[in-house]
Amino acid sequence: MRPTTKDLAKAAGVSLATVDRVLNGRAGVRKKTVDAVYEAIERIGFERNQVAATLARQRGYRFGFALPRHGDEFLEEILKRIHEMDRAGRAEMLQADVIRLDDQDPHRAARTLSRLSPEDYDGIAIMAPETPQIRDALVRMQERGIQTVPFVSNQKRLDDQTFVGIDNKAAGATAGRLMARFLGQRGGAILVLTESMQSRDSLERRLGFDSVITRDYPALRVLPTLESHADPLRTAQVLRNAFAAHGDIAGLYLMGPEARIPLEVLRSFPFPPGRVTIAHERTPSTEQALRDGEIDAVISQDPGHLVRSAMRIMRARCENRSTLASQERIRIEVLIAENI
Over its length of 340 residues, how does the chain's per-residue pLDDT go in tens digits? Predict the structure, then answer.
């Protein structure tokens, strides 16, 4: 039979009340006692009944996903998965809400975060550009007792915490390797486009991409990153200027999470045979572009896994326990027309 809390109290040499305080992360327990309880947990193989623990606290968990107000298909996929988890989690007394942040105004985004209370939310998964205002708001949230998890787009100030998302430097390096392998022996320029380099995921992807191309493929040169700000007119302008200035563009790297707008713009441009295009995230637009031969490969992460992992991590932190690292590792998936 599985060890009970009574067995745990006996093994640690403490009372049931003390075990309860330690397991629920309550104050008033000496570090020596906390260490004794956790040592006993390891020794006897105690596993907590999480459903019973949630019922004992007489209320469930409410988690929020703080997402950008502006987004497109990839963000829509994430929203769908959050709503699915909200419906499925009710049986375990778990609630998932969406909080929209003004990603164009870091001051307003920080004010939105500052209004979140631990009485309303047990944890917040945050997907937002890395700015001083947002970093400070996250630190204050932690001080108020709200668990915070960087979600999809990492926040440097929170690097000591578990980041829910792919290794973006590795994802960029993967894009670089695929780009060069698809191009074969050809040389030329590679055009890189993203929504904003203020996003840490874009910064890390560019670092990974450059590390592979500059080290292993001297015949290729990577052009400075163009920013579209998700605006169709700006996207058309920067792409038109780039093609006019560089006649040897052999590859396009759509580095941001939303490829729909640049793909629509690129359809009005001459598309010479042999040009290679790599994009990120599986969406209706990138799936169709793969089928139509407009994209050669898509580097993706599973939105459902992202949301489930964030929920598990936030709950584990609320319950002062660890998670299974292998379960929470978000895999980098490479999609081509034949495997979608």
Answer: 778 888 888 999 999 888 878 877 666 788 888 888 888 888 888 776 655 555 455 568 999 999 998 889 999 999 999 999 999 988 788 999 999 999 889 899 999 999 999 999 999 999 987 788 988 998 899 899 899 999 997 665 454 567 899 999 999 999 999 999 999 989 999 999 999 887 888 999 999 999 999 999 999 999 999 999 989 999 999 999 999 999 999 999 999 999 999 999 998 887 677 899 999 999 999 999 999 999 999 999 999 999 999 999 999 888 877 787 878 889 999 999 999 8
Evaluated on CA atoms 304, 309, 314, 319, the torsion sign reads: positive
Ordered by where they begin, the domains of the chain are 5-47 (1.10.260.40), 60-165+303-329 (3.40.50.2300), 168-300 (3.40.50.2300)
**C-alpha span between 203 and 197 (Å, rounded):** 6
Contact 126, 151 (CB under 8 A): yes
Question: How many residues in total does the chain contain?
Answer: 340
Q: Find residue 335's DSSP bridge partners.
A: 298
Helix (H, G, I), strand (E, B) or coil at 172: helix
d(CA 65, CA 213): 36
Q: What is the identity of the amino acid at 179?
A: M
Residue 84 burial (10 A CB sphere; 0-12, 13-18, 19+): middle
Amino acid at 339: N
Q: What is the pTM of this model?
A: 0.80
Taking alpha carbons only, the member of 244, 306, 245, 239 closest to residue 277 is: 239
Spatial separation of the C-alpha atoms in residues 76 and 52, rounded to whole Å: 34
- Non-local (6+) Cβ contacts of 169 within 8 A are 204, 205, 207, 208, 211
Task: Please report, as a single letter, which amino acid is at residue 19.
Answer: V
Two structure tokens written together for 167 = 């290794």
Q: CB neighbours of 79 closer than 8 A, spacing ≥ 6?
A: 67, 98
